[in-house]
Amino acid sequence: MSEIKIKVNEQLQQLQRMMQRASFGQFMGKARMHDPNRGQGRALAILKLKPEISQRELTYLLNMSKQAAAEIISKLEKNGYITREASAEDKRVMIIKLTEEGANVSAETESSTEEKASALDCLSEEELTAFSGYLERVIKSYEEQFPDVDFDGPRRMMEEFMSHHGHGFGRHGHRSGRGHGFGKDKGNCEGCGHHTEA
Question: CA 176, CA 170: separation in Å to the nearest integer?
Fold first, then answer.
């Protein structure tokens, strides 16, 4: 491997560590809890788009085990960010609703994300466009090198969800053409009643 490849790889790893520290180390406690890349922050980001959702659908969108999602949901409920109640149509279905306090925390999370993105202000629009293109090529190379790893699964799920709710655009800036896509089987999406694709 050439020296420049080693250097760039090390720089990418350093950047990753710096981004993680900015998210978890500098602010501690509250910022860590609400970071949009972590469980509770991701759940709040989803609930901001859809303030009323079934626990099953939220678990699916979080892309984690039922046990892990239940723990996150329990913490959010304990903090007063959500409420849970059985569906009027089906008592077996738990409906999660975002509270006013949860909505405020979600807005703080969005502001924090914008602050982190300001680190890119050192690059011009032209440089950012070129940098984005380089990263796309590296991402594609990873996907080709490891074809059995579903790197894109979580992004696709969120893209489908956001597109369904009128907010979503794909990685290249185009609106997703996929359907709702929740669950493995055709039928109605639990909690919203829209038809899903197999």
Answer: 6
